[in-house]
Amino acid sequence: MRPKIAAGNWKMNGTAAALCELDALSRALPENPPQVVICPPSPLLFRATDAVHGCPIQIGAQDCHTEEAGAFTGDISATMIADTGATHVILGHSERRDTHCETDADVQAKARTAWTSGLTAIICIGESNAQREAGETLDIIGAQLDGSLPDDVTADNTVIAYEPIWAIGTGKVPSIAQITEVHDFIRSRLTTRFGTEIGNALPLLYGGSVKASNATEIFAVENVDGALVGGASLKADDFAPIVAALASA
Ligand SMILES: O=C[C@H](O)COP(=O)(O)O
Questions:
Q1: Beta-carbon neighbour count of residue 12 at 10 Å?
Q2: Which member of 15, 57, 79, 187 lies 3.0 to 4.6 Å from 52 by CB, making a disulfide possible if both were Cys?
Q3: Which residues are involved in binding substrate (predicted)?
Q4: Domains of the chain, residue spans
């Protein structure tokens, strides 16, 4: 049985004042909540882990360097992230692949260093609008999976998030048939490469304009085990109903 995971990516939003949302979220969690992971900007990590102490919310970072330490001005390492008490790190988000030119090989190297520090890697993949319109979606997703996932992936060290780039922050959501097609494809690719035990155990999240109004039908898709949510994770009032929808899925 795969875990259900509601992950929130705050991206470059929020100062210390935003941490009150964690308290509000914890009070709004359903009785049997899914796994909830909030990924605030890195300056908030220490305070965020303090803020969720004693409640079932985990904290993640949004990126890490491939190296554990060194002369890399402005970067943070997986070791530093783990030191804050965080448990997860998002890797290969399309915004980093785009604005920081991250490659599949970079993502794979980051996953390895994340695991070394005991972090769970949330590895993001997804096609652009041009790639979808050219009929290349499954080829792109397959190549990203092949290149971004190390061979020794396990269901304990990795979560995969499918985020079509054209759905991120746009309000455009793929049809249920499109989400189903890609998630089924990912599942099949994983079982072929890693075997049925690991391939069927790896959690798959959908991301891109998830809101309370569309969460229930997205979570009903067989190979959707949760969501990676951007804008709607910033406020507990918006995120709590998504978490509740996942708990009831
Ligand atoms: O990491 C989260 C995704 O980029 C989705 O963002 P969004 O929910 O604002 O579309």
A1: 8
A2: 57
A3: 9-11, 169, 209, 230-231
A4: 5-248
Residue 229, CA distances (Å) to 24, 25, 100, 152, 153 in order: 17, 14, 21, 27, 23
Catalytic site residue from 93, 95, 127, 183: 93
Over residues 20-48, mean pLDDT: 97
Give residue-wise pLDDT tens across range 55-112.
999 999 999 999 999 999 999 999 999 999 999 999 999 999 999 999 999 999 999 9
Annotation marks residue 183 as catalytic = no
| DSSP assignment of 70-81 | SS-TT---HHHH
Residue 62 dihedral angles phi and psi, to the nearest 5°: -105, -5
What distance in Å separates the CA atoms of residue 7 and residue 13, rounded to the nearest whole number? 15
58 lines ligand 1 (CB under 6 A): no
Ligand 1 mean position, distance from CA 173 (Å): 11
Quote the radius of gyration of the chain (alpha carbons, Å): 17
Query: Which regions of 126-168 does DSSP assign to beta strands (E)?
Result: 158-162
* Percent of the chain predicted with pLDDT > 70: 100
Q: What dotted CATH number matches 5-248?
A: 3.20.20.70
